[in-house]
Amino acid sequence: MSTDVWVVADLKLDGTIRKVTFEALSEARRKLVGKLDGTLCGVLLGSGVSDLAEELGKYGAEKVFVVEHDVLKDSNPDGYTKALTDLIKKYEPCIVITGNTNFTEDYFPRVAGRVQAGLTMDAIDIDLTDDNRLKVQRYSHSSKVISTQEFLDFKPMMTTVRPNSFKPEEDPKSLEIINETVEIK
Question: pLDDT for 45-89, tens place per residue?
């Protein structure tokens, strides 16, 4: 198991990256990567997304995994589930984060189930415990209470983050782009 932290880019229908992706990259860089002594990685899934990799590098990603496939063109949850599951099984990241949107709420839990990962949804704060387990704060009870959830020792630890919970800050890095292929039917 690596100590890498992955942020899966959440794309709009027009093919641009949602701001929540940059927020998640920034917060992961500030609070997680240094404590784990890992690498911050971006993940781009889709069709015609290769050109977006540089944008993830502006917010601190040192590596970007790119999966291009025609099946991923129209936000196909089954295709995204298969692609991300295969990547996680191959590279074994420590933490996987994405934005909390309608689309990610559909496929991200499926991925967590297939890789037997812990999952929280809609985080408003992320950090690590003293023994490097992911600690997440999220609203509960109709947003009247903030609960703190800590992961057990299962990897990867997966969470979605609520849009507009973190401040995106550019921190350009030299970028390694890794093009991956997955078999999607």
Answer: 999 999 999 999 999 999 999 999 999 988 889 999 999 999 999
Cα separation, 71 vs 129, in Å, equals: 39
Strands (E) located in the chain: 5-8, 40-46, 63-68, 95-99, 118-128, 134-140, 145-150, 157-161, 176-180
The confidence score (pLDDT) of residue 106 equals 95
pLDDT band at 13 (very low <50, low <70, confident <90, very high): confident
SS3 2: coil
Examine residue 156 and say whether the peptide bond preceding it is cis (omega within 30 degrees of 0): yes
pLDDT, residue 184, reads 87
Would you list the DSSP string of 105-136? HHHHHHHHHHTT-EEEEEEEEEEE-TTS-EEE
Burial of 178 by CB count in 10 Å (0-12 exposed, 13-18 middle, 19+ buried)?
middle
For 1-11, write each residue's pLDDT tens digit.
789 999 999 99
How far is Cα 21 from Cα 53, in angstroms, rounded to an integer? 12
